């Protein structure tokens, strides 16, 4: 095992930090930056020349467009090598630590930087997930791995699909993007491996990637020491790893599984799985598979139970090669289809599952319905109703006097993100919720809109558009449990998509905004992409459309533009005014 001194020395010698130190020396006593805290275009080109980076243009619109430079800049910022004060940056306190600090301090700074830039805890994007996949491969590798190993692992993280099939139905677009290395330019696996190499985590030689001592230490820190505690109960473990890619889910669960005998782990997981649904149940079943054949005593115990015991009887029948009872097949079929329904994205209607079932077995559906109805599965009536009459919302529950805490988050908008946490009556119709969303977000209700849910699309009743009447269904009919979602789209030209998620059910039916972040984008600015361009140009006097945008926004200066402006109190007042 490498010593702290050896690890710190490797961290100091990494390409990324060597470049970040050069950048800090360049900053010196101070350099001007833009409103977004990055070098101005001319300075960005100067920095590229210093660091040996070839910019795509000698006259970039923004430093943000030069990805390699932004990587080095991010390292310098996160490691506190530089800090922003007003409209300037200067050398930060981390520079002294990096050059004169004890090995423990250096290693701590490197870890903080690597974790934030390579494995961000929230809102992972495609490139973050690709890096995480590569780190998992390096963590599990005993020796060098090939770029093909990385490529396949990345594709698995995105799709968990059969990579021998290249059709979009079998592999997600993201998986295909990373699996296909036939295009021009450096393959994505090279890009991922190259970045890990710059951090000193791996050595890249030809098509082989070898984890370094620093890399092995770091991946152990992330995947072993950073895994859920073995002391957690099974339900908490399942929730902690739910939503992770399959391979990562198993890696992060190993310390918990290893702390128990396979049978004991299976008993705990089975007990927890019985009370889960949707993705949580799938996660529990995946972890049960990891328990292996030595878990048989636990499966035998559960095989005596009704309902969820069907999973145990199925496991035993596969081991023994015997036939599974028809009643158990029916129960498991209902459970599998209900799980699929619960995991559908909010923009997909439940009919897609019903249509797939009908397409698969045709007239056999009518023959299967009585068996499914008699399965004693608690959700059998819901499934039978869907297969008999697809697209029917849940019956209206009694939610009088009950409140919902909803999170409304605008998709594809960052720096800052735009979201609101609202408290509303559960009995609001979707038509009423539309007006609440408009006020809470800051829109002016000048464009068309629609809600999308598994049961269909809702809006102003329109036969041509296929919208169901948004005033005929309540929020509680579509959002029944915490975690349920619907998609709200505003302005079919700009396509502002909002995820609306039920976060909490509360005993209060007033309307209020309790939290949020980010100002509402201007109407008609071109959607998320146009808004990003607007934010960059309006604060950059050298941008070609800077003056036009200021005039369009009615501003005298880019300093008057603040995308972070938001007040829950002011929003609550506006919501209350609209009710009276």
TrEMBL record:
It comes from the Bacteria. Transmembrane segments: none annotated. Residues 560-580 are annotated as: Disordered. InterPro entries: MM3350-like_sf, Plasmid_pRiA4b_Orf3-like. It holds the Pfam family PRiA4_ORF3. Residues 404-569 form the Plasmid pRiA4b Orf3-like domain. Residues 564-580 have a biased composition (Polar residues). This is PRiA4b ORF-3-like protein.
